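Please, does this match?
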Amino acid sequence: MPDTIPPPPAPAAEPAGSLSELLKAPDRYALGIVGGGALGARVAVALAAAAAGSALFFFAAGFFASWQVALLDAAKGAGIALFAFVLCLPSLYVFSCLSGATLRASQIVAAGAACLATAGLLLAALAPVLWLFAVSSSSAGFVAGLAVVLALPAARYALAPVTGLQRAGGIRTTGGLRLWLAVLAIVALQTVTLLRPMLAAPPPEPEPTPFDAPGSKAAPAAPEKMFFLEHFLRTMDNGR
């Protein structure tokens, strides 16, 4: 009688609500959100991962200028992720409802945070690649363009929790949440423009004029208002 090959062992289940479950089994992670288990912890862990991943990505980009700029960009990166998410919370709820969500507001927030965390983890994984080109390239436009290209997979795979939520029965369609992720990306890009410069040191404070009171400091010039596409094109053109 020929020997039979034993079946392979079943893969070990990742801890419920963990980041490893979010990456390896987004459907199971989404099922946990629909079940309503430990939503506060899920949101806290997901937002921390999103902020850390964004901080690491911008930290790597900042080495184009100096390690001091890199540290400043890391703080900006974490702020961009959290600020954009908070601004987009009302639209997250509305788009979820338009997608046929049967979830409570806390579950919807947990689902949005899971999308943001997925993107943040991918940004963190790609940060070493960005760092290499940041420290070895002399073109700010190239580094900015590379950062956008590397961020595209993060935007693509941020959809994984959305499709998992649909399979778990939390929403009927994914169209509304796909649109919300597009809005979130646009808000994040505009926030990058608001917090510029990212690849250079901040401009020095203006010197006080003879008409200023002794010991006073001149008021810093207000940054020019700019759309993020204009900012990106300027960076590609002259590195600013």
User: Anything to note?
Assistant: The mean pLDDT is 85. The two ends are 75 Å apart (CA to CA). The first helix runs from residue 19 to 24. The chain has ten helices and no strands.
